[in-house]
Design a protein that fits this description.
By secondary structure, the chain is of the alpha/beta class. The protein has seven helices and ten strands. The structure holds adenosine-5'-diphosphate and magnesium ion.
Length: 236
């Protein structure tokens, strides 16, 4: 499967008749098995770009080619759970085919077992984010889109979930797009980093990470980080 993004622009208009250019021309493609990471300043248009790619916002100039049969797993910046459904029901509604065993496994990994029957209003933001991740994983997605999924989680949990995302990506051919502010997430998970400009967003630089994820030990991560720091300095 392949995702092709070819946006020539996107503008928001306001009621006063003003307009607000959010996306400049952006072109890239992503294959199954690849993790693309979007890194850019706050407000540059990352979440807007994801909504356009998912087909949730069709008011843009350009074209997105998404395989029509692709199952989509999505974690929005706000967890967006159905408030009148329990944690378990929220996941099952999105993923009706999920097996009991897989559900238990996901709830175990995400430390949600004790919260199966809780309602979203009873959850902290960190917990709600974990439910959103469980829901996205349970779908067994072909296209996984994650908008700052590990923000506001403590370091230990964020690191465990990062490993879980890596395991999911290794276990089946999924196209992944991850928005993050964390260079650690980017260099542990990414195959290609897209460095975005301030609004209107365009890709300033694409940085490939050639070393396979499984071989990125600490020494390798330090090396990649230094390489990236040098690149970003040049870009400025
Ligand atoms: N529905 C909307 N209507 C008008 N402006 C919007 C809307 N959604 C986002 N914006 C504006 O578009 C810009 C990019 O927002 P967003 O994509 O959320 O940025 P990011 O995710 O990179 O922080 C911001 O200036 C934001 O205020
Ligand atoms: Mg955003």
């Amino acid at each position: 499967m392949r995702l092709e993004v070819d946006i020539s622009g996107k503008t928001f208009s306001n009621a006063a008749g003003g307009s607000h250019e959010v996306l400049a021309p952006i072109r890239f493609a992503l294959r199954s098995g690849e993790v693309g990471v979007l890194i850019g300043p706050s407000g540059c248009g990352k979440s807007t770009l994801l909504r356009v790619i998912l087909g949730l916002d069709r008011d843009f100039a350009g074209h997105i080619a998404r395989p029509p049969e692709a199952r989509i797993g999505m974690v929005f910046q706000e967890p967006r759970l159905l408030p009148w459904r329990s944690v378990e029901q929220n996941v099952r509604l999105a993923a009706p085919d999920v097996s009991n065993a897989r559900l238990s496994e996901l709830f175990g990994i995400l430390k949600l077992e004790a919260h199966r029957n809780h309602f979203p209003g009873e959850l902290s933001l960190g917990l709600a984010r974990r439910v959103a991740l469980a829901r996205a994983f349970a779908v067994e997605p072909d296209l996984l889109v994650l908008d700052e999924p590990l923000a506001s989680l403590d370091d230990a949990l964020a690191s465990r979930l990062r490993d879980e995302i890596a395991a999911l990506v290794a276990s089946r051919p999924v196209m992944t797009l991850l928005v993050t502010h964390s260079l650690d997430d980017a260099i542990r998970l990414g195959d290609r980093l897209f460095l975005l400009s301030p609004r209107p967003a365009h890709i300033v630089q694409e940085v490939p990470i050639e070393v396979p994820r499984a071989h990125r030990d600490n020494a390798e991560l330090v090396r990649i980080r230094a390489e990236l720091a040098a690149l970003r300095l040049e870009a400025n």
